[in-house]
Design brief:
The chain has 286 residues and is mainly beta. 0% of the residues lie in helices and 52% in strands. It folds into two domains: 167 residues, no CATH class; 107 residues, Immunoglobulin-like (Sandwich), CATH 2.60.40.
Amino acid sequence: MSKAVTTGFWPAISVTPPNLTGLTTDRVTWGVPAGSGQSGYVFRGGEVDVKTDGSEFTLGTFTHENFPITGLTSQEFDVDLTVNVVFEDGTTADFSFTFHHNETPNVGPAPEDLVDLPTFVSPETVTIDGTEYAVLISGFKQNGVVVRRFVSAENAANSADVVAMFAVSGKPDPVITQVRFKGEVKRTQADEFVEIVNRGTAPADISGWVLGADDAGQDFTFPPGTVLAPGQRIRVYTNEDHPESGGFNHGIKRPIWNDKGDIAKLRDPAGTTVSEHAYGDKATTP
């Protein structure tokens, strides 16, 4: 592991809104103010740990300055971001991403603006210790949770960490990253879950794969068509349905994961263990 420093700038926008300023800088703004000021995007980088084991790090902080404006001819448009990374050995690399902006009407039950990334993988790569890596954005970390869509409240400057990882170029990499073994629902612990993330830069088809812990009757088999996009995370709950994280659950009305310790395993259709996650008194088991 080594250190690197990130900076970013906004080189282009797909439309020409009125009062556009700040292109090629870390703060771009647009629109005719209808109150507090213009709207715009800000990216602030910083020092990061360079890890090539799939661990996530904060690429930088994204801020949407979301203030009432007028004059837009298009409510949806793209804003390009370039992130420059300078490594300890002096190597420098640029990674580009596109932010899709939805300037929603400031009325109705959901006036918040929306920011999405059409793709979460940089087209550029960098070679580290002889292996080619791309930067994979996991999502925006808001209120302690990594989400794929940034929801921005009106009349405020809203920020989130951009969570990313260095991922081996051209390969899928589905792994178990978390086991919530102690639920809050009494007796049944229906809100237990296992989280799986595709840390690769290619889609991961896990149709027919099995999640379990070597306990009879507690396996979960992923249905046909289960494909994880690069950086996508899903959860398999014990007995709750959460569409925002995939909508998967065991449908079992009792706790599955041992509070003292267990090993969650993800197996492919051939029965090969692709990923496992040990916790509690099982964490020290070789």
